[in-house]
Specification:
two-stranded antiparallel sheet; 2 strands; globular; mainly alpha; 181 residues
């Protein structure tokens, strides 16, 4: 457990340093605010698990974020899509969006919708900033959100109490009720 905490702390510090370098090169306040969201949303999600002293949740968070990052980077490496601003060939999918949606979905799956709404709002804003700052196409952001959502959904289980989630399968829709004791 200490290894994962140290690794995540190092990742946060590295992310903050990368943010500082990127913020100086950012084209606009909108892009900079998206960069802040990239660091802040996952850090707050991790912090919520720390605050709740939820070591099982922290493990699930690490797996969710790690698998999201790996999936995103593999797709970027494989697809080589040119960014809208022509800067590089790593547009698809948006890593900013995949990581923030992974954190938001982790919170939703682990602690419920009430806790997750601000996280989803912030993740959506981060995605919007990526399109507005001409760093990604809308499809890159949608794909990133889906990657983050699916990875966190796969690795995260409810913390305790009752969890309600919607589903759509085949020709039916409904609600799943999960109770942990």
């Amino acid at each position: 457990m200490k290894y994962f905490q140290s690794l995540f702390t190092a990742a946060i510090v590295s992310g903050a340093m990368m943010y500082h370098v990127n913020a100086q090169a950012a084209n606009s306040t909108i892009e900079t605010s998206g960069d802040v969201g990239l660091v802040l949303v996952p850090a707050l999600a991790w912090g919520m698990s720390q605050w709740k002293d939820d070591s099982e949740g922290q493990q699930q968070f690490y797996w969710s974020m790690g698998s999201t990052l790996l999936t995103t980077e593999l797709l970027k490496y494989t697809i080589h899509e040119r960014r809208p601003d022509g800067n590089s060939n790593d547009s698809f999918p948006s890593a900013h969006t995949s990581l923030t949606f992974s954190a938001a979905t982790y919170i939703q799956q682990r602690y419920g919708w009430k806790s997750a709404l601000p996280f989803y709002a912030a993740a959506s804003y981060v995605g919007w900033t990526r399109v507005q700052s001409d760093r990604h196409y809308t499809k890159d952001v949608v794909a990133g959100a889906l990657i983050g959502y699916l990875n966190a959904r796969y690795f995260t289980e409810p913390y305790h109490g009752v969890q309600v989630s919607a589903y759509a399968e085949g020709g039916s829709i409904g609600l799943n009720l999960h109770m942990a004791f």
